[in-house]
Amino acid sequence: MIRVAVLAPALALRIGLREVMGGLPDVEVVAESGLPQGLPAADVWVLTSADFIGEMDQEKAQPLLLLTDDPDEVARLSGLPVWGILPLDASAEELSAALHALAEGLWVGAPALVQSLLERHPLPMLEHGEQVVNRLTERERQVLQLTAQGLPNKQIASELEISENTVKFHLSSLYAKLGVTSRTEAVRAGARRGWVVL
Questions:
Q1: Is residue 125 over pLDDT 50?
Q2: Cα 35 from Cα 162, distance rounded (Å)
Q3: In a 3-state reduction of DSSP, which class is residue 85?
Q4: C-alpha span between 47 and 10 (Å, rounded)
Q5: Count of domains observed in the chain
C-alpha cells in the first residue's frame, strides 16, 4: 500500500485529489493539508504548488509528485532526490503509475514538462562531450534493453508484468537521465555506455 499525503492550497483541489487517489488500487491518502507542517510521514507527497518545496523538511527527502501546468515550476524540483511532475489534468491511470514509480524511487515526468527542464538545465558534460547521468535503476535497464530489442510499450509492459503507463514513465525517466528525446537516442546512449546488448 502506497501512503500519500496531499498538499494543495485550495480545499476543493484537496478534496478532488483525495477522491481520485483514494479510489486507486494500493493507494491510501493518509493526510491532506494546505500547509506542509505537521503532516505525518508518507511514501509520496502530492503537491499542487512548487512553493511548498521550500517549506518542507528536506531531511525527510520524501518522493514528491508536483501537479502543475507551469513549466517554470519544474526547475524547482531539479535538486530533489526523487520527484515527479504531471499536468493538473493527469488521468487517474497516470496518477497511479506515477505514484507506484515514485514509491520505487524512480523519476517520473510528463514528456513536455521534462523536456522544458532539460532545455533550461542541460546535463553537465564530461571532457569528450559525454553527458554525466545518474545511474539507471534495474527496472530502467530492463525497459531500455527491451526497447533496444524493438518491442513496443505494450509488449514491454506484458514482458515485465507492469502497466503500459508505467513503461511510459520509465521511458520518461530514461530520457531525462540520458538527456535524450527519443527511443532511438536512448538505445544509442545506452549502447555507448554498455547498458544494452544489441
A1: no
A2: 34
A3: strand
A4: 11
A5: 2
